[in-house]
């Protein structure tokens, strides 16, 4: 049986501003730094067997992964395929447009996704391909990624309709939320989903 942890990065200023596709090199803000330390302590307490930590190439994911890796005494490996969805012409628009302007959220062929950017299905496929490499060795992989990318790949792995799951927010992750997946004979199931119990209640967190 394979075991996989998926983690959304800690908070940044663009999360607070609620804007899409903000700078890929956004650093963590002070709340995000505290969140990263909290999720790192959570993983340190799990006693994982031979943990291996992976991160999206974007700074916010790498900083979160570095906190976890430091707590576990292992290095971070950058995994390009788990980067955030490319928002195309929607870069800089508010999160709210995903609800108020959802009729515009289509590619030319009608599939759900960002005009000039990526579709949910494309993100899910590249993410799943990237995950294939993390199971080539022994140990327990911990992958730090992003909200939309996690929603897309979880719909694929758990066999949900990606557009319906997106619309319902079924796989929405707050900052540093943790999902634990188990796989047996190629079938994935969620042991826990978008769990943020490790975060102490601090005003403004989870944005």
From TrEMBL:
Q: Which Pfam families match?
A: His_Phos_1
Q: Which CDD domains match?
A: HP_PGM_like
**InterPro entries, per database record:** His_Pase_superF_clade-1 (IPR013078), His_PPase_superfam (IPR029033), PGM_Phosphatase (IPR050275)
Q: Give the domain of life.
A: Bacteria
What is the name attached to this protein's record? Phosphoserine phosphatase 2
Q: What is the lineage of its organism?
A: Bacteria, Thermotogati, Deinococcota, Deinococci, Deinococcales
């Amino acid at each position: 049986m394979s075991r996989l942890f998926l983690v959304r990065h800690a908070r940044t200023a663009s999360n607070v501003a609620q804007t899409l596709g903000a700078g890929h090199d956004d650093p963590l803000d002070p709340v995000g730094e505290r969140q990263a330390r909290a999720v790192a302590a959570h993983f340190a307490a799990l006693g994982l067997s031979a943990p291996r930590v992976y991160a999206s190439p974007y700074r916010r994911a790498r900083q979160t992964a570095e906190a976890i890796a430091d707590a576990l005494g292992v290095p971070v490996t950058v995994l390009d395929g788990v980067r955030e969805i490319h928002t195309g012409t929607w870069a800089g628009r508010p999160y709210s447009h995903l609800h108020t302007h959802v009729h515009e959220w289509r590619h030319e062929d009608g599939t759900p996704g960002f005009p000039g950017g990526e579709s949910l299905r494309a993100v899910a496929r590249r993410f799943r391909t990237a995950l294939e490499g993390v199971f080539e060795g022994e140990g327990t992989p911990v992958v730090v990624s992003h909200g939309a990318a996690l929603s897309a790949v979880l719909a694929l792995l758990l066999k949900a309709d990606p557009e319906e799951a997106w619309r319902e927010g079924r796989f929405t992750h707050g900052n540093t939320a943790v999902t634990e997946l188990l796989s047996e004979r190629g079938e994935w199931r969620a042991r826990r989903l978008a769990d943020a119990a490790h975060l102490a209640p601090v005003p403004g967190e989870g944005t």
